[in-house]
Amino acid sequence: MEITWKGVMPAVTTKFTADDNLDLDMFKKNIHAQLNAGVNGIILGGTLGEASTLLAEEKRELTRFTKEIVGDRIPVIMNIAEQSTKGAIQAAETAEQDGASGLMMLPPMRYLADDRETVEYYKETAKSTSLPIMVYNNPVDYKIEVSLDMFEELLKQDNIQAVKESTRDTSNISRIINRFGDRLKILSGVDTIALESLVMGADGWVAGLVCAFPKETVAIYNLVKAGRIEEALKIYRWFLPVLELDINAKLVQNIKMAEVATGIGTENVRAPRLSLNGKERENVQNIIDTAMASRPNVEEYLSV
């Protein structure tokens, strides 16, 4: 499947049962909520997916199961976050075998690779698969930045096609467009500046709080792309306190609490993560409760 790299693509959470197994029933319920809202892709195995705690066979099961649910309606994209080029190549091959439509790739984990090493990591993995690739550029959290000069080299590989832009510098979107035009598709990777990024020219939004609020997220995207900025801003300003739960070390626990509030998830996380408690939990719950009390009706915007 070709990927157009636009629209809203949820980085979905992984659902667990109370006894720490995959909760495929709740996972399916959430995926259907995403589909009903009109998202443009599903991304598995990211930070929100608790990928670092998933067993290899669980990742395979999630890929195959998601593909069964969505069929050919939208792409299923598997994240790759590996420590070695060999591991990344193996992960790409496995994802392709299991029916993934594309890959999202972080730079090498743990080892702080230099520019040359990072480029080779991406290029060698890209050569090993026919799947289209979105580079996840998040130097804030992962300490490696893929520069424009590095992208110039990476784009020599036809299947490196997009960037999840998470530098948190919205002006970088203009730099990318000025340098590459339409050659490199841009998807905003930071919920709190997604609207601004879309206005600046980003093609899509790899979203986090969409896991709990799919319709609101799609509505904002649709309105911005239709040029109806004031209407988008009204929803976005309501949404912002909740979106800020995504730029936090406990984003997984935060977003799972929000999924409970909207009826499409549970709080179950995999250790060493633990569900929130005490004042921390109270603060997050207050943010969610406040948003739920004034939640807008966005149905009319889903077909804009």
Automatic annotation (TrEMBL):
GO cellular component, as recorded: cytosol
Protein name: 4-hydroxy-tetrahydrodipicolinate synthase
Gene3D superfamilies: Aldolase class I
Organism phylogeny: Bacteria, Pseudomonadati, Bacteroidota, Flavobacteriia, Flavobacteriales
Keyword set includes Lyase: yes
GO molecular function ontology, one term from the record: N-acetylneuraminate lyase activity
Keyword Coiled coil: no
Any one of the GO BP annotations: N-acetylneuraminate catabolic process
Active-site residue numbers: Y136 (proton donor/acceptor), K164 (schiff-base intermediate with substrate)
Keyword terms, alphabetized: Lyase
CDD domains attached to this UniProt entry: DHDPS-like (cd00408)
